[in-house]
Structure formats: C-alpha cells, structure tokens
Write a structure and sequence with these properties.
Blueprint lengths: L5 E3 L2 E3 L3 E3 L15 H12 L4 E8 L19 H13 L3 E7 L11 E2 L13 E2 L2 H21 L3 E6 L4 H6 L19 H11 L6 E6 L10 H12 L8 E5 L18 H10 L3 E5 L5 H9 L5 E3 L2 H5 L3 H8 L21
Parallel strand pairs: 3-4, 3-12, 4-5, 5-8, 6-7, 8-9, 9-10, 10-11, 11-12
Antiparallel strand pairs: 1-2
C-alpha cells in the first residue's frame, strides 16, 4: 500500500510517503536558498520520497518565524527555489511549497495577529490587524502563490496550523474579534477563505491546507469542530482545497500533547477523513512500515508524512522497499550495495 500511486487533482505521486515541512533555519538573512537546502531536499528525493513539502516559506519578511527562514516575498528569491525544485524533480520526486506567515510567533520585529494577545512572555505583544493589514497579508499569499506557479511547484500548501497567523484567526483561543473576521460558531473561517481564494487565483495546481486539528485545551478546537468549516470551504470552488495535512498543537503556549507516541495524531486524521471527502495526509512519530501500511490499508489516511524519521534516515523509502521485498525505484548507481537495509 505504501508504494501504490496516489493522485491529488492532476498530480500523480509514485508512492504514499511525504516529507512534511520542517523548519531548517538555514536560509540567509534575506530568505534565500542555500547549498544546505539543495543537498537536504535532494537527498530525500534520491531516497525515494514521493512528495516533498519544503519548509514554511514566508510570504512577507515580517512573517518569518526566524531570521533564517526561506522566503518567497520577492522575485529575487525565485532562482534559488527553482534550483531546489529542479534537483528534487531530477531524482523523480514531486515538490510542494508551504506558504506561511508566523503572525504573533514571528521573531523579526513586532508580530501581527487577529488580536493583541502575545503567545508567551518570550514574544512581544502583537499588533491587532486592521482591514488594511488583512488585505496586505491576503495579497502577500497570492503573490507567493504567483511565484510558486512561475517556479513550477507541483503543489502549494497553506500553513493554517501550529499557532501561526492563519491559525490565530481560526482558533477562538486567540481570535476575539467581533467583526466579520471573528469566530463564527466557535471557529474563524473568513480570513482562511480569502487567503485560499488569493492563492487559487494565482496557482493552478493542487492546494493543500495544514491544520492543527486538536488544540489540547478544553476551550480550544477539536477534530469535530473543523468539520463544519471544511464543509463550508469545500462548497465553493474558489475556496476548496485538495488535501488536508492533519497535525496538532502549537496554538497556545501550553497547547501540546502530554503523551506523544507513534501514531498519536492518526485518530484526529481519521475523524477528519470520515467527516469530509478531502484527501488526508497524516503522521506523527511514525517509522514502522507495517504500522504505516496498516494505517493506509484501513483508510485512516491517504498519505503518510515522516518528519523526524526522514531527518534521521533520508533513505527510509528504500529500506521499506527492502522490507516488503519490492523490486522497483532503487537507484541504479547503488545496485552493488543490495540488499540495502535490514533494520526497518
């Protein structure tokens, strides 16, 4: 099951393994791709990952999580990202970019947010966004998508998770607005909808959305709270998405799980999948190929991301091929090293 093909809109993936966006904090101070990124992502493509979603890439300079985040806020950043894409494509993997804005969790100057409530004492109080600020950010996501289209990315993922700006509008733990951008029926949808529209107006491939489906707070959101929102955005073609990347936590300072173990987020993903008709990407501390295969066979998710495991082991897909005794997709250059691996 891991090595069956999967289609997202018009994008065909060779297997069900995805590298999720993980911040590397290795760009220069202007957000440009560095040699590290070419080797880092290229190695995972060579290792057989079906889809690589590169790290949170800021649509505004003020929206960076750190001063060393990748950026897509100006055209000068296009050539480096194009070089990265060409390397990943050259090894037979597909590549997506995660468009992101840190909001109140930015560390570059004073952040912006749905409300003037700081994330923790380590962060300054953010500026509560007015209509002009909102319009500017929506436009920035659209411009980031335009650049992603020009570069040739196979997919765009919108970062609506982990307490960053879009999540700050979605979650009632942060969003206390009483205008049209506030929470309606306990969840904030309008800001997300307008960002999706802006992205889709500028990018014609599949659109993914990453969410924190569980906020680990009794007053926060849980998987069932997302189902009406996802139903609403799917009813309009201009705001519909093609893939939901289910994650959790990060919305508030104490909003993290107390018991992390392999597959701890799969239940959230399964609940979202059962309540929608959208393809689901899921993960969380997974590394056992049998367990991953079982999740896919049981249709709890359509795709599986491996995060830390792919940091430890960029050749995990080749190991899994060996585990299942599948003879395909092995690099010709390394044939003399077969059998590759015995320890997954």
């Amino acid at each position: 099951m891991i090595f069956t093909k999967f289609k997202i809109k018009n994008l065909s993936l060779k297997n069900r393994i995805v590298m999720p966006p993980m911040c590397m904090y290795s760009a220069d101070g202007a957000g440009f791709v560095q040699p590290f990124h070419l080797v880092h992502y290229g190695t995972r493509a060579q290792g057989g990952v079906g889809l690589i979603i590169i790290e949170a890439t800021a649509v505004e300079a003020r929206g960076r999580i750190s001063g060393n985040d990748l950026g897509i806020w100006n055209d000068d950043q296009i050539p480096g990202l194009k070089s990265l894409l060409d390397i990943v494509h050259g090894f037979g993997s597909k590549i997506a970019i995660q468009l992101a804005h840190a909001g109140r969790k930015a560390t570059i100057g004073q952040g912006i947010s749905s409300w003037d409530l700081k994330f923790s004492d380590e962060y300054p109080t953010p500026i509560k966004m007015n209509d002009s600020d909102i319009d500017q950010v929506i436009s920035a996501f659209g411009e980031g998508a335009r650049r992603a289209q020009k570069i040739g990315f196979d997919m765009v993922e919108i970062h609506g998770a982990h307490g960053y700006l879009i999540n700050q509008f979605i979650s009632p733990l942060v969003n206390r607005r009483e205008d049209s951008y506030g929470c309606k029926n306990g969840i904030g949808t309008k800001f997300l909808q307008e960002i999706i529209k802006s992205v889709k107006n500028n990018f014609k491939g599949p659109i993914g959305l990453r969410i924190s489906a569980e906020e680990y707070s009794s007053d926060g959101l849980h998987p069932q709270n997302f189902l009406p929102m996802l139903s609403e955005i799917q009813q309009d073609h201009s705001t519909s998405v093609d893939l939901i990347n289910v994650s959790s936590g990060g919305v508030i300072e104490k909003g993290f799980p107390s018991n992390v173990q392999p597959g701890y987020q799969i239940g959230f993903a399964n609940e979202i999948k059962n309540g929608t008709k959208i393809s689901i990407l899921a993960g969380g501390m997974l590394r056992d190929p049998k367990m991953i295969d079982g999740i896919l066979i049981d249709e709890k998710a359509d795709l599986i991301w491996l995060g830390r495991e792919l940091l430890r082991n960029p050749y995990w897909p080749l190991q899994a091929l060996e585990h299942f005794k599948i003879e395909k997709d092995k690099p010709q250059q390394y044939k003399r090293a077969e059998p590759y691996f015995r320890n997954v």
